[in-house]
Amino acid sequence: MMPRNQSAAVSRRRLRTALRRLRVARDMTQREVADALRWSSAKLMRIEAGKVSVSFTDLQALLKHYGVTDPARIDMLNQLSVTARAGSEIGARYRDALSPGMAELLEHEESAGVIRNFEPQLVPGLLQTREYAYSALRFLPDKELPTDVIERRLEARMERAELLARDDSPDVFFILDESVLYRRAGAESGADGVLAAQLEHLRELAVHPHVSIQILPFAAGLYGAIRSPFVILEFDDELDDGLVYIESPQDEMIFREDVESIVRYADRFRSLEKRASSREMLPVIIDMALNRLESHSVLI
After folding, report:
1. Could you tell me the CA-to-CA distances from 157 to 126, 136, 188, 189 in Å, in that order?
2. Which of 46, 150, 216, 218 has the greatest number of C-beta atoms within 10 Å?
3. Which of these, 264, 266, 269, 244, lies nearest to 256 by C-alpha position?
4. Of 238, 239, 244, 240, nearest to 257 (Cα)?
5. What is the pLDDT of residues 121-134, one digit of tens each?
6. Which residues, 6+ apart, have CB-to-CB distance to 88 below 8 Å?
7. Cα–chain-centroid distance for residue 187?
8. Which residues pair with 143 in a beta bridge?
9. 246-255: long-range contacts at Cβ-Cβ below 8 A with a sequence spacing of 24 or more?
10. What's the whole-number mean pLDDT along residues 204-218?
């Protein structure tokens, strides 16, 4: 099965994974294949690492060398090669303003069938209002960003959020630490209003059949993932194990595609789900946060 709306990033990853598996199945080293095709070893290494695109001619040479004769399989790999060279994804269009890791996340996100996102500090990007996102982009980076970069990142984030409104929207599961609901969006005048609007936006999004938002309450105490936001992407393909993106303290997205990391973070997410409130409790929890925010504003 091909992933939904397969992006270039997903195609590149699937193609290099398929080529690597074909080589391993034939019990060949990269050096042996490169020598047989009169390539440099570096060329094959870059192809299998996804550092360069593989041309149609080179792909046919590899498939012939690996003994692939099934027309359906050849056609599928050829399609991957074509899609891999496309560049219409959000991450590609805004690559000039995004960090490399974030651009890659957005590219893969477009083709995911399931997204699981844990966030201990702020509202996840897919759920942010424009005003909340603008505040996050202004205040959260370690260094002040140029105005044009902020605007470009803001547009990318808003376009990214449209993923949830698609007819073929992925199933998206969010777990937020309760503190996220009480942290004002900045310190200037109007910050309370930005947070209140964001909370109402969460309430509206939560009724979407493909969106689940759970809150990890203060009463849950300390937990292992409290300092580490992460995103797990799963694809509609039984041969694709998925990806994990981990946000570093430097606001960089680091991805892992090894099975051990995927399993570890999937287990971590399931553990958090068990300690979090049910999705049906979200309106009540949001009302509590809004009431506290209103009382705080009155006191000030």
Report:
1. 7, 11, 22, 24
2. 216
3. 244
4. 244
5. 999 999 999 999 99
6. 8
7. 29
8. none
9. 250/142, 251/99, 251/140, 251/141, 251/142, 252/99, 252/101, 253/99, 253/101, 253/102, 253/104, 253/105, 254/101, 255/101, 255/104, 255/105
10. 95
Gap between the Cα atoms of 91 and 97, Å rounded: 10
Query: Is the distance from CB of 218 to CB of 106 less than 8 angstroms?
Result: no
What's the rounded Cα separation, in Å, for the pair 130 and 132?
6
Other Cβ atoms less than 10 A from the Cβ of 254: the count is 12
pLDDT in tens, 147-182: 999 999 999 999 999 999 888 889 999 999 999 999
Copy the structure tokens of residue 17: 């994974």
Pairing of strands 230-234, 114-119: antiparallel
pLDDT(287) > 60: yes
Residue 76 CB neighbours (<10 A): 15
- Report the alpha-carbon angle 94-150-198, nearest 5: 105
Average pLDDT, the chain: 87
**Residues contacting 102, CB < 8 A, separation 6+:** 91, 253
pLDDT, mean of residues 253-265: 89
- For residues 204 and 165, is the Cβ–Cβ distance under 8 A? no
Cα distances from 86 to residues 1, 46, 82, in angstroms, run: 20, 19, 7
Q: In 3D, which of 166, 182, 220 has the Cα closest to residue 4?
A: 166
The string of DSSP letters for 159-174 reads: HHHGGGGSTTPPEEEE
Query: Can you name the residues that pair with 171 across neighbouring β-strands?
Result: 114
3-state secondary structure of 214: strand
What pLDDT is attached to residue 212?
Answer: 97
pLDDT digits (tens, 9 = 90+) for 6-19: 677 778 888 888 89
